[in-house]
Fold this sequence. Notes:
- Helix 1 (18-37) packs across helix 3 (74-99), helix 2 crosses helix 3 (74-99) and helix 6 packs parallel to helix 8 (270-283).
- The protein is α/β, with parallel strands linked by helices.
- An 8-stranded mixed sheet has the order 3-9-2-1-12-16-17-15, sandwiched between helices.
- The chain is built from 9 helices and 17 strands.
- Bound molecules: adenosine-5'-diphosphate and phosphoric acid mono(formamide)ester (CP).
- Residues 10-12, 47, 231-233, 236-237, 240, 264-266, 269-270 line the site of adenosine-5'-diphosphate (ADP).
- Phosphoric acid mono(formamide)ester (CP) is lined by residues 10-11, 47-49, 190-191, 208, 210-211.
Amino acid sequence: MKNKIVVALGGNALGKNPDEQVQLVKHTAKPIVDLIAEGHEVIIVHGNGPQVGMINLAMSTASQSEFKTPEMPFPECGAMSQGYIGYHLQNGIREELLNRGMSIPVATVITQVIVDKNDPAFTTPTKPIGAFYSKEEAEEMISEKGYNMIEDAGRGYRRVVASPLPIDVAEKETVKTLVENGHVVITVGGGGIPVYRDGNALVGIPAVIDKDFASAKIAELLNADYLIILTAVEKVAINFGKPEEKWLSSLSAEEAERYIAEGHFAQGSMLPKVQAALKFLKSKPGRKALITSLEKSKEGIEGTTGTLFVNN
Ligand SMILES: Nc1ncnc2c1ncn2[C@@H]1O[C@H](COP(=O)(O)OP(=O)(O)O)[C@@H](O)[C@H]1O
Ligand SMILES: NC(=O)OP(=O)(O)O
């Protein structure tokens, strides 16, 4: 059956610098084009944590240097990250399509996502961005740049920014029109540029929306059948990393809610994915969500691997 599928790409699909990104995206394009070749309509969402952190730090450092480049506001850095990642992704997918004899237009839509400027998330920064640093480097960044830094699961220190929930997608009609006309669209990159409504204006606000929540939102708005969240693991586990770890092939809404309450999914990594999958599943009967790895996405949609969220 032909499905309308929103695919959310995790950090392992993109890499840490432009060279790595170009190379990784060639690999990322293959499972995406597999889905397109099977006749599915595919909409692509990607993360931007490492990239928006890199861009913002570079712009801020340059503006404070002898070269005195202009201060670049955070929402503009988010827009730059969408352009930078979208540029590589659309070319990678385009090339893979042409290699397989398919001439299908691919485009990135710079996408703004409406948030509530009074979202409580603005008072507690939780979203890790940029690179990992040592404790000493983190302390220097706190005192020199005023950043909020946290220790991230034993992997080092990372800057954190606010992460409000997505309410609506400003460019949803444009995305819908492109999808209906057979275009492959990359949208809500990095969760979308967070904006709030002020009369007729959309005003950017410094934050990074979680791309898992944003992908569930655009999937709902586009009336998609399927949300596929691709990450570094083939399945979701309970008791992850413990001796009694159990990998799950399917999850009902009731089971997912119970496991969330029992604390099986790590905050900032697996938890938003499970919450986003659950939200999409519950938004309309018949909708399905899958969490699996990039490499296994074809098998995942064929039903032979991954964690499938279904209402029974
Ligand atoms: N319960 C769990 N089941 C599976 N993976 C988990 C679980 N809890 C945490 N993880 C970790 O979460 C990671 C995915 O989160 P993250 O790396 O932040 O995602 P992204 O692909 O969006 O960059 C997995 O690779 C895994 O290491
Ligand atoms: N915006 C966002 O969720 O990015 P990451 O997936 O890179 O954390």
